[in-house]
Design brief:
50% helix; elongated; 11 helices; alpha/beta; single chain
């Protein structure tokens, strides 16, 4: 117990020292503004200023996550983006001073205004059982997943599609798959459909449409030549799959193609750490009604046939 008290006292002392040395170097008006910003952060965390500063010193990941959560709280309070940016800049300046003093060996990476607005929009969305966290770094994971799968398949899709006029990518994620299909078929309209926005810089033939597949697709019957969807076992409950596939088929024109790509869950040899991680993920997936076995993987062809498709492979 004595060692714990000593450690806590040392951390609090470090935070006090940083605050004093941070504020004493600033002009009086700037120091007052800094103090007001840090007091507001402390109110957001429902703690003291010293404890709030201590939270920022715990590492780059925690500090970045805290900065994003604080920025979202400020935007929900109706503060202008410029005001939010100024308050976040105070946090970055504080940690810059901490680095100068040798208290940390890293710099705070603040969320961009676009990331804050995107996170704010996601927080207003209707509930969805998506398994993975909606975090700015999810963009990198999704793109890496796309490039790895493209390399493994040797192509972006396997359906014998030639010269489509309209293509739909459901659960598009960042939109990278659709961007590349635009480049392959320059005359086509490619629509990326997802709960969240994809990357902003897209080809001229690409359109983003936001929505939830579980609430139906906002397109007319027989609208698309090619409909693509993959890796949504992490977002569609098992009981909803037949209806979701029926929606994909509904918007596909006669003679068009639907391509689905979903993983088999088992059959891989892994080490104890990966097995533990998989057990945790499966427990979470089960609590959300998502597939925890190979039910979806083993039934995709049946879902397609029941929805009225032929030549299912």
């Amino acid at each position: 117990m004595g060692d714990d008290r000593t450690t806590l006292a040392g951390v609090a002392g470090e935070a006090r020292s940083l605050l004093r040395r941070f504020l004493e170097r600033a002009a009086p008006a700037t120091a007052r503004a800094y103090s007001a910003d840090l007091a507001d952060l402390a109110r957001f965390l429902d703690t003291s200023v010293e404890t709030a500063v201590t939270s920022l010193l715990q590492g780059p990941e925690q500090a970045s996550r805290l900065a994003l959560e604080y920025a979202l709280a400020l935007r929900r309070r109706g503060l202008a983006p410029a005001t939010v940016a100024r308050r976040l800049a105070t946090l970055r300046s504080l940690l810059g001073r901490a680095r100068e003093l040798g208290m940390v060996g890293w710099s705070l990476e603040l969320p961009s205004a676009e990331e804050v607005e995107a996170a704010l929009e996601r927080s207003r969305e209707p509930g969805s059982p998506y398994l993975f966290p909606r975090h700015p770094e999810e963009v990198d994971r999704l793109d890496l997943q796309h490039f790895a799968l493209r390399e493994a398949l040797g192509a972006n899709f396997l359906a014998p599609v030639e010269g489509p006029e309209r293509v739909l990518d459901v659960g598009t994620g960042t939109g990278q798959w659709g961007f590349e299909v635009c480049h392959r078929f320059p005359g086509a309209l490619v629509v990326g459909f997802d709960l969240v926005r994809g990357k902003p810089d897209h080809p001229p033939g690409y359109r983003q449409v936001r929505g939830n597949l579980l609430q139906g697709l906002p397109f007319r019957d027989e609208s698309f030549d090619f409909v693509h969807q993959r890796f949504l076992t992490a977002g569609i409950p098992v009981v909803a799959w037949p209806g979701a596939v029926a929606e994909l088929v509904r918007v596909t024109r006669p003679g068009g193609w639907v391509e689905l790509g979903e993983p088999a869950m088992g059959g891989r040899r892994t080490g104890p750490a990966t097995e533990h991680l998989q057990r945790m993920a499966l427990e979470l997936a089960g609590s959300l009604g998502l597939d925890t076995g190979d039910a979806v993987y083993g039934a995709l062809d049946r879902y397609l046939r029941e929805a009225g498709l032929e030549e299912v492979t």
